[in-house]
Amino acid sequence: MSEKPLSDALGIDQAAEEALARADVRTLRELNEADPEALAMASGIPLDRIKDWQERARRAGARRKRNPVVTGWLVAVIGLAIAVALGWGMMSIGAARLKNAEQIRLEAESKLQMEIGFGARRAIDELLPVRLALHSNNWGAASDALSPVEDCAEFIQRIAPEGRLDSVAQVSKKLDDLQSAIRDQSKDAMDRLTALEAALNELAQAE
What is the tally of structural domains in the chain? Predict the structure, then answer.
């Protein structure tokens, strides 16, 4: 993530940058991770402007800190994929070895399917605090609570085999819809959350 001043990164004036600094927000990541309502109160900057800057920060490359558990999954699965690829490459064209290689491939794909199911169920669990925040019309808390769900969705997308790409794409679309609804404080945010939960449940049951 860029560490250049927010005035350069987002084109905001120096007075706004100083107001954000007084609220302990000096980088794109800190701006993206901040609760917009709390930041608006601490800085004296209107909430709409804060939300607009957060959206621009995300477009500029700001990302939330990764969930270490999800990162651990990703490292493990990538390691498995590399091991399978190396094992496949070392196989000769002999019929017996080809059969063995195919078995390895199937076992690896089965493990990936299990990891997808696990990731989907974890994302469903992480939707509970989002739902509770929406019930309270606490849009800032709902946005923050969505971060672990985003991590799970990214993990699933990275490991999905070709046969699951359509289902995973549906999850990504439903997640985008929910993010937009929360950002816009839309009255159909709860319906979009339910639609995302259904798409994740479909992935979890298909492992």
Answer: 2
Both 115 and 45 in one domain: the answer is no
Specify the CATH number for the domain of residue 167: 1.20.120.290
Per-residue pLDDT of the chain (207 residues; tens, 9 = 90+): 445 678 777 888 888 889 999 999 988 888 888 999 999 999 999 999 999 988 888 887 665 555 555 556 665 656 666 665 566 555 555 666 666 666 666 566 677 778 888 889 999 999 999 999 999 999 999 999 999 999 999 988 888 887 788 888 999 999 999 999 999 999 999 999 999 999 999 888 865
Under 8 Å between Cβ of 101 and 88: yes
The token duo for 206 is 């298909």
Q: Retrieve residue 115's tokens.
A: 């990891």
Q: Which of 131, 168, 134 is nearest to 152 (CA)?
A: 168
Helices (H), the chain: 6-10, 14-22, 28-33, 36-43, 47-59, 68-89, 95-135, 139-145, 147-159, 165-183, 189-205
